[in-house]
Sequence to fold (98 residues):
Amino acid sequence: MRSAYDILKKPRITEKGSTMAESKPVVVFEVPLDANKTEIRKAVQALFNVEVRTIRTMIVRGKVKRRGRYIGKRSNWKKAIVTLVDGQEIDFFGATGA
Fold:
């Protein structure tokens, strides 16, 4: 059994994810390649104490990179787009009322 911290590696805070979050409560996480939707749902609910509506996952293929004459490839990684129930949110930045 993996812990919730092993399932949710880190949040992916990007411009596209922020745009999606403006219209509905959505959070994007990087997860292990072998994680399934049930594990992701339990991890989010346990760590952030929120209710999850849906989860969409996708594998992002690593880009081929080149430095001079050497060619390499970045690792593949898995993205989980977690939609929360209306009225709930996860605040990563600890917004203060300043």
